[in-house]
Structure formats: C-alpha cells, structure tokens
Amino acid sequence: MAMAEYVAAAGRYDGMVYRRCGASGVKLPAISFGLWQNFGGAELQESCRAMVLRAFDLGITHFDLANNYGPPPGSAETNFGRILRGDLGHYRDELVVSTKAGYDMWPGPYGEWGSRKYMLASLDQSLRRMGLEYVDIFYSHRLDPETPLEETMGALAQAVRVGKALYVGISNYPAAETAEAVRLLGEMGVRCLIHQPKYSMFVRTPEEGVLGVLREKGMGAIAFSPLAQGLLTDRYATGVQAGTRAARMESLKSEDVEGRMAQVRALAKLAVERGQTLAQMAIAWVLRDGVVTSALVGASSVAQLEQNVAALEKLEFTAGELTAIEQILG
Ligand code: NDP
C-alpha cells in the first residue's frame, strides 16, 4: 500500500525552543533526536518513519546519526536516507543532519579511529547511504590516541573545505584534547562548533572539565543519553520488561537498572511534585545551564518522543529542587 504523502505540520516551529550553539551562528532545537537504537535493520519500519516525521512536526530540526548506527552498521543512515528521499527531502534546508566517524566500521586498518584515510572515506559512505550532498555536522566520534590530533582535525577541516560538511564537532573527547582540537581547527580557519558528551543526572563526568572548556571556547554542547538510556524515565518502574533496552542486555544491563532503582523512585517523586515526568525532569536538568545547547534523546515510540518534547513546558528549577536532586544522587 502506498504511503500517504507527508506534509509537515504548519505549526511545527511554534512549540520548540531553539538555542544558539555556543558563539556560532547556528541554533539547535533544545531537544534533538538520535537514531543510535531502534532504527537499524534491512527494512525501514513504519514506526521509524512515524517517529522521525512526528519529531519534525514537533519542531525537532536536528537528527543525529553515525556511520555505525544499526545494527547492521550503516543501516540507520540507510533508513534515514529513505525517509529523506520519501518524505523530508523538500525540507532539507530546515534540517540539521549530523554524522560521525570513529568506531569500527569496516575490516582492516582503515576502518576505525581517526586517520584522514578513514575519516574522509567514512564521510563519503555516510553521504551515499543518506543520499545527501553534505551533512550539517561531521564529528570525530572518539579521540584516537595513536593518530596525531592534527591529522584528525585536518580531515574535519577538509570535509568543510570541500563542502561535504557545514560544521564540525567532536564527541567523547576529554577536556585537554577538546581545547587542543579547538586550537588546531582554529589554525585551519574552521570553528569547532560542538562537543557531544555523555551527560545526565547519572553521568556527571563532563562537569569535571569538558563543560568548562566549552564555556571558555564558546562551543556548543549536545548531551547524549540524557535519560541514561531509559533509566531516568518510568520505563523500569515495574522491572525490566520485554521490549525495553535493558531487556536486550546490550548497551544497558538489567544490573544497571536494579542498582539505580532507589534513586529513580526518589527522582520520579520529585518530578511529580514539579508537575512533570522523570523523563521530562531529566531533560530539563541537562538544559538547566546554558552551556548545553540541546538534549539528544532516543525513543522507541512516538508517545515517548511526545512526552519528552513536553519537557519544554517546564525547564526552570528552583534552588531547592536542584539541592534535592543532589541529595538524591548523593
Ligand atoms: P536516551 O538517554 O534518551 O535513551 C533513549 C531510550 O530511553 C529510548 O530508546 C527508550 O528506551 C527510553 N525512553 C525515551 N523516552 C522515554 C520516555 N518518555 N519514557 C520511557 N522511556 C523512554 O538516549 P540514547 O541512549 O538513545 O542516546 C540518544 C542519542 O545520543 C543516540 O541516538 C545517538 O544519536 C547519541 N549517542 C551518541 C553517542 C556518542 O558516542 N556520541 C553514544 C550514544 C548515543 P526503550 O528503547 O527501552 O523504549
């Protein structure tokens, strides 16, 4: 059966908040959508298409991918490419599409990490899979300890120079290497637009240095796994049920869930007192300080996505609420 032609909602920009990405010219939606999980496979599921289109209708202009998202690796980009071709193609200039290279992608010595050889070949592959001429943001997905940073940053700068990326970013880089990446790119005349760190109430590492560097350098930040992969929601209120990420026992284990449940229950109670769900409070929390431009969420249903976007109805915290959260987190 032919799918109905998609026409974007007329009011799609009415409810979303857009925040400037560091000191750059570009703004990102306060909530962005990532396709790491639930978008793989050889066949595009109707639920994937429904989530992406609903996201766009809710004002989510930024979609985050990487070469290896699937499984199998590459299939999330292929599936997103189908949605672009079939539905969102007309809206290309309203979209910020990112991809990354860094993790294991193809066999042999040129299939991962940060060499110029790998980075630029990977970007070409990503563009082919998505059917795009350029991505908006191209990331180095992780620091390569064996390749000179100059070479990896040189590959990012080259991607900008040849028009295959409009902006570049880094992900999972520690503070010192972040500052050095900014300096090296600056020498090449390219702004390091954004850092993508893992950041949530349960993962505070960026506060130890990275966020300070971003503030100082005028870089933006997009916090990945702000819901701690679903832990900071009501997903596990009745234990680890079939169909959840923890039940798959890949990136999230049932032990992780059990170890956190007392904190989750206390946080959920606080969220209710604020008039929102725990997922909504977790998103508002990563956005509480202007250094984080956008919360990069995942979802396995349209209903989750809708609930998450409704976090925007209450972003502010009282000092008392922030203290109560710190006490719960210990
Ligand atoms: P989240 O922390 O937002 O976790 C998303 C998961 O939480 C969903 O798949 C769903 O789990 C559950 N969930 C989401 N909303 C709700 C809700 N309202 N109620 C109940 N459960 C909910 O982020 P992800 O870990 O998915 O990461 C987001 C994105 O960040 C990725 O897609 C990717 O783009 C990026 N990322 C980047 C990395 C990097 O190294 N740069 C690494 C990891 C992620 P379920 O599927 O069980 O329903």
Low-pLDDT residue intervals, each spanning 5 or more residues: none
Task: Give a list of the ligands.
Answer: NADPH dihydro-nicotinamide-adenine-dinucleotide phosphate
Percent in helix: 25-40%
Oligomer: single chain
Q: Which overall shape is indicated by the principal axes computed on the Cα atoms?
A: globular
CATH-assigned fold name: TIM Barrel
Radius of gyration: 19 Å
Work out the number of β strands: 10
- Element string (H = helix, E = strand): EEEHEHEHEHEHEHEHHHEHH
CATH superfamily: NADP-dependent oxidoreductase domain
CATH architecture: Alpha-Beta Barrel
Q: What is the count of distinct domains?
A: 1
Strand order of the largest sheet: 3-4-5-6-7-8-9-10
Q: Overview of this structure, please?
A:
- By secondary structure, this protein is of the alpha/beta class.
- It has eleven helices and ten strands.
- It has helices at residues 46-57, 75-88, 116-130, 149-161, 175-187, 210-217, 245-248, 254-273, 278-286, 302-309, 319-329, and strands at residues 18-20, 27-29, 31-34, 62-64, 96-101, 135-140, 165-171, 192-196, 220-224, 294-297.
- Bound molecules: NADPH dihydro-nicotinamide-adenine-dinucleotide phosphate.
- NADPH dihydro-nicotinamide-adenine-dinucleotide phosphate binds next to β10 and α10.
